[in-house]
């Protein structure tokens, strides 16, 4: 029997024994713990299995090439299942099991349909194995891509949250940096600072690096890029929070920031106030009446 004939055989088996295959598949998924975590309801699992079997029955009548156009709707559904599994916290193995566990019910159905012809069963099992493997690998690829996109998005959100721009006074902004400053984070820092300079019409931006563990040549370059971008927007920058250890490291490396720097944020703020024509004075305590 040719591969094309096997496709017709599988289509017939799925059409005539679909409910039995669906039941056996669902039972295998439950036995592997698909519902144990509580992340997936039984009704949802049944719907997914039923939809996949229906689309497989339609697609398989046109051949056994999982990459062909007639498998497009099935691949779309499997992609949705993979993405939902990634969001729900399933592992790659648990996601792959959803597809791979369909093999045994199909093997049993083929064996029952062609019980008198072992050679046909063997070749048919080989064909169905290749098909299910291809579909299973596709779900893993989608799952992995979805996880990577989620991680990248979370990293971007964390970077944005960890680089807030604070308004200290009219025309004065502060950008406290915490953690390592790499190329990707520098881009986020720069975008946030420039947007805030425009929105607040700021004249001075204080970049506080108290929370930066170390400043090497690369970190200094990132800081200078941010300073240069701010200057192009018409705002001067002051670097604050350079600790003694960082100062020694920068001198040892020959790193020059070429920008005004202060030891603390308070010192930088006092300088910024002076530049914008403001000053902070102590208010005398109100004298209490005698008696």
TrEMBL record:
Stretches assigned to the STAS domain = 162-276
> Which InterPro entries does the record match to this protein?
Bact_StressResp_Reg, RsbRD_N_dom, STAS_dom, STAS_dom_sf
Q: Does the keyword Phosphoprotein apply?
A: yes
Keyword hit for Iron: no
Could you list this entry's UniProt keywords, alphabetically sorted.
Phosphoprotein
What sections of the sequence does the record tag as coiled-coil? none
Q: Which Pfam families match?
A: RsbRD_N (PF14361), STAS (PF01740)
Known PANTHER family for this protein?
A: RSBT ANTAGONIST PROTEIN RSBS-RELATED (PTHR33745), RSBT CO-ANTAGONIST PROTEIN RSBRC (PTHR33745:SF3)
| Name of this protein | STAS domain-containing protein
Q: Species name for this entry?
A: Rhodoplanes tepidamans (Rhodoplanes cryptolactis)
């Amino acid at each position: 029997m040719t591969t094309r004939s096997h496709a017709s055989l599988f289509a017939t088996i799925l059409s005539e024994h679909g409910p039995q295959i669906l039941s056996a598949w669902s039972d295998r998924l439950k036995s592997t713990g698909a519902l144990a975590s509580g992340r997936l309801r039984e009704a949802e699992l049944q719907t997914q299995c039923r939809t996949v079997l229906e689309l497989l029955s339609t697609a398989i009548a046109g051949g056994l090439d999982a990459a062909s156009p007639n498998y497009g709707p099935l691949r779309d559904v499997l992609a949705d299942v993979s993405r939902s599994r990634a969001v729900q916290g399933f592992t790659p193995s648990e996601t792959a099991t959803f597809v791979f566990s369909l093999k045994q019910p199909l093997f049993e159905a083929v064996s029952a349909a062609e019980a008198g012809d072992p050679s046909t069963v063997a070749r048919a099992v080989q064909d169905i194995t290749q098909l299910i493997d291809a579909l299973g690998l596709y779900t893993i690829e989608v799952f992995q891509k979805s996880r990577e996109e989620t991680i990248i998005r979370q990293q971007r959100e964390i970077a944005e949250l960890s680089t807030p721009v604070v308004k200290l006074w009219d025309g004065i902004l502060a950008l406290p940096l915490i953690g390592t400053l790499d190329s990707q984070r520098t881009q986020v820092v720069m975008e946030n600072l420039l947007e805030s300079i425009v929105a607040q019409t700021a004249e001075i931006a204080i970049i506080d690096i108290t929370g930066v563990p170390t400043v090497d040549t690369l970190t200094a370059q990132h800081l200078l890029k941010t300073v240069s971008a701010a200057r192009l927007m018409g705002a001067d920058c002051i670097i604050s929070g350079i600790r003694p250890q960082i100062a020694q490291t920068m001198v040892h490396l020959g790193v020059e920031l070429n920008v005004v720097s202060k030891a603390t944020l308070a010192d930088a703020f006092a300088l910024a106030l002076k530049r914008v024509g403001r000053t902070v004075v102590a208010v005398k305590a109100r004298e209490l009446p005698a008696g």
